[in-house]
Amino acid sequence: MTIAEQISALRKELHEHNRRYYVEDDPVISDHLFDQKLAALKALEEANPSFFDPNSPTQRVGGAVTKNFTTVMHAYRMYSLDNSYNKQDLLDWETRMCKILGVDVLDYTCELKYDGASISLTYVNGNLTQAVTRGDGVQGDDVTNNVKTIHSVPLQISSSDLPDTFTIRGEIILPLAGFNAMNAARIKAGEEPYMNPRNTASGSLKLQDSNLVAARPLDCFLYQIVSDQSLFKTQLDALEAATRWGFYVPKHYIHAPNMEAVFSYLEEWEEKRSSLPYEIDGVVIKVNQLNYQEELGYTSKSPRWAMAYKFKAEAVETQLEDVVYQVGRTGAITPVAQLTPVLLGGTIVKRASLHNADFIAGLDLHFSDTVSVEKGGEIIPKITAVNTNKRQQNSIPVRYVTNCPECNTPLERNKDEAQHYCPNAHGCMPQRVGRVAHFISRKAMDIDGLGAETIQLMTQNNLLFSYADLYNITAADLIPLERLAEKSAQNIVKAIAASTAVPFARVLFALGIRYVGQTVAKKLAQHFGSIDALANASIEELETVDEIGVRIAESVRGFFALAENRQIIEQLRTAGVQLEQDKNESPVSNALADLRFVVSGVFTNFSRDELKALIEQHGGKIGASISSKTSYLVAGDNMGPSKKTKATTLGIPIISEQELVMMLNA
Ligand code: AMP
Ligand code: ZN
What we know:
Elements: H1 3-22, H2 31-47, E1 71-73, E2 83-84, H3 87-101, E3 108-114, E4 117-124, E5 127-133, E6 139-141, H4 144-147, E7 165-173, H5 176-188, H6 197-205, H7 210-214, E8 219-226, H8 235-244, E9 254-256, H9 259-272, E10 280-287, H10 290-296, E11 306-310, E12 315-327, E13 333-344, E14 347-353, H11 357-363, E15 370-374, E16 382-386, H12 429-440, H13 452-460, H14 475-478, H15 486-498, H16 504-510, H17 518-528, H18 531-535, H19 539-543, H20 550-561, H21 563-575, E17 596-600, H22 608-617, E18 621-622, E19 632-635, H23 641-650, E20 654-655, H24 657-665
Parallel strand pairs: 2-11, 17-18, 17-19, 19-20
Antiparallel strand pairs: 1-6, 3-9, 3-10, 4-5, 4-7, 7-8, 10-11, 12-13, 12-15, 13-14, 15-16
The structure holds adenosine monophosphate and zinc ion.
């Protein structure tokens, strides 16, 4: 055997053993022998670097570091699911579908709804080429290096019926045993335990160091194959094919010939869920026939052919030990119950949100009360009831604080709002620190290297009155804090200076105006074009902007009405921060440079304007009509027939929105 053949044979063998162990749970060789073979492969690869393969079994151990995850457009949008909570919801759903399809009966698949982080895996010629998070559904983060370390994700597959290119979707989950072991280790090391498996799983995907991901006992369960070819007739066939191709599809799915069968599945799993080694938050019911799925299509948020059935939340009783009040960066006060730690659905709960003053009053909560705690969809569990039978005599009712727990300023509450606020925006420490932390965060000014502690120290030492002061900081100011090394201090100063290139919309988001999130900031930036125009806008003008209501409008007005804020803006202006929309915003990539597109028809994943904007962001040009200069016609549904004819006669390629997105990602 040549070296190449030896390497290839070992890789093939190890991929198969990996599958036997992690997917089938039925290994045929000992762990020891596996390790020996892996070591042999590693030695061969090291001696012969020209045979490097990113998908070799040796690449699972991690090692790659991703500093910034690349954003990738999904070729097929990743939708969310509609929720149902009872049988009637499901019967109504069935009626709606039958009406659209003009049929009397439908059959379904029932799968468990795994509670983790969604992932989209792409395979080209049997090789895993990309793993992308759901993100906002339209685009997600490329987390390939991290996903490769998960053993149940095949790096290479072969099967006679494998399409050249396909995408498969699934859920990255953290089994309970692994989660509890990780927490035990953290508690032993004096660290805060993780809140729940789902968040830990999704957090793991975004770790920069894939070595750390490799050390986490993550798993990947698959549930949907997407391809531009129609490969299967039913979802059942697709699940069986995925299993045959070497993916891990939990065996608990069924084919339900009718709604009755769906109901019995729901009852069965409502009962059995706690015996599973991982968390599920319900069942997903899908129309089995794929041609029906296609006909039913999608709403703007979710497929019409699938429905999540959410289980009733599990509940336990425990005792209220204390109530603490957290102050957020916008001054919003959140009361949090400190509970006697209790096991709930496989994780330890010791805090619960109490939302606001009305919520506490509504419960008539007393200290030391026995309370019912439930885990809903939220990160932090909630208190749903007080068991007054167990109330201690003379117990003291919980009275909402009247003053800020951090700066003692009397709290305020806007009419029609449940939340209390600390109005001392510029004097209250957690608000000052929180605003700077928000300002430098990745989606805002993206200033690296400043930790929460450094910000706290800088604020306490009056180096920072507001985030605008960041631009006056020198390395000499930073070095004495936390004994920062000269080099890291200089890097921070550099990162701060570099942030003056961040575009206006993100600056606007970074300012931390209450209710102005990323989307609102983009809309405002686009509409007003500059901070001055925005600062001078009246409530009425603000309200003319798409999706801006009076609540946001008043918040924006309130922000610019404060003299302190206007002064901060002036400081930012002096520092050279972008306070105007850049007319010729630099393209996101040059993937489409020198290409001319005509966009026509109605699309599924984008509006026509979104597609045009997307093309321009990637350096392409848009034409109104087809000529010999046109490079591609991007065609949606109901496109005018004359355009199509013209493109065909001129020999101009006609592509779909998916193909366009693939060009961007290539
Ligand atoms: P939601 O985020 O609540 O709208 O629910 C949609 C998510 O459920 C999808 O993005 C998937 O990540 C997840 N999910 C878990 N199990 C399944 C399954 N068997 N089929 C489809 N989606 C699932
Ligand atoms: Zn305060």
